[in-house]
Amino acid sequence: MPDTVSPQVRSRMMASVRGKNTKPELVVRSALHRAGYRFRLHARKLPGTPDIVLPKYHVIIFVHGCFWHGHDCSLFRWPSSRQEFWKRKITTNQANDLKNIARLRDAGWRVLTVWECALKDKRRQDGKRFADKLSEWIRGTKHRGEFIGKFSK
After folding, report:
1. What is the pLDDT of residues 9-47, one digit of tens each?
2. What does the pLDDT read at residue 126?
3. Which CATH number covers residue 87?
4. Under a CB-based contact definition with an 8 Å cutoff, are residues 39 and 53 in contact?
5. pLDDT value at 128 more than 70
6. Residue whose C-alpha is closest to residue 114's, from 102, 125, 103
């Protein structure tokens, strides 16, 4: 199926996609700040350049867009154009995610992934409940976690 916009418009649209300071990331940072946590952003010296690092708790938080990381949820759909490109791009992102998480875990970090659908999904929880669950995970002992549509994992 051909693209519905011109190559120039598509290029402009894709150029506007940000990798840092996205809306979902700002929601997570705001919840952490309101709960009194202090953190570092985009630590380039750590594998995968984590979005949020809480050194005091030895916790890393990745805030992943469901499309870019191929999350199996209602927000992800394989593109119908340039299928080979997108398949390669997204599966490479997924492989890099797994590799970086393993490297962080080997270095003693606890890793949490907050998926975009946990913040945007129709079933999403209110901000207070999200902040409480986030704080509970940070202060807990789990080494790996994910927040999805209803913070279930």
Report:
1. 766 666 556 667 788 899 999 999 999 999 999 999 999
2. 66
3. 3.40.960.10
4. yes
5. yes
6. 125
Question: Does an H or E element contain 145, and which?
Answer: strand 144-147
How confident is the model at residue 23, as a pLDDT? 87
Q: Which pTM does this prediction carry?
A: 0.84
Report residue 11 as tokens. Answer: 């290029």
Say which residues have a Cβ less than 8 Å from residue 28's Cβ, sequence separation at least 6: 51, 52, 61, 63, 114, 119, 134
The single-letter code of the amino acid at 141 is T
| Residue 2 domain-assigned (yes or no) | no
Residue 87, token pair as written in the block: 């398949």
What is the distance, to the nearest Å, from the Cα of residue 24 to the centroid of all Cα atoms in its chain?
A: 8
Q: What domain count does the chain have?
A: 1
Name the DSSP class of 124. P
Q: Assess if residue 95 is contained within a domain.
A: yes
- Facing residues of 40 across strands? 53
The residues, ordered by sequence, that sit 6+ positions from 92 with a Cβ below 8 Å of its Cβ are none
**pLDDT tens digits, 82-100:** 899 999 999 999 999 999 9
In angstroms, what CA-CA distances link 47 with 66, 78, 125, 138? 20, 27, 30, 20
Q: Give residue 57's domain range.
A: 20-147
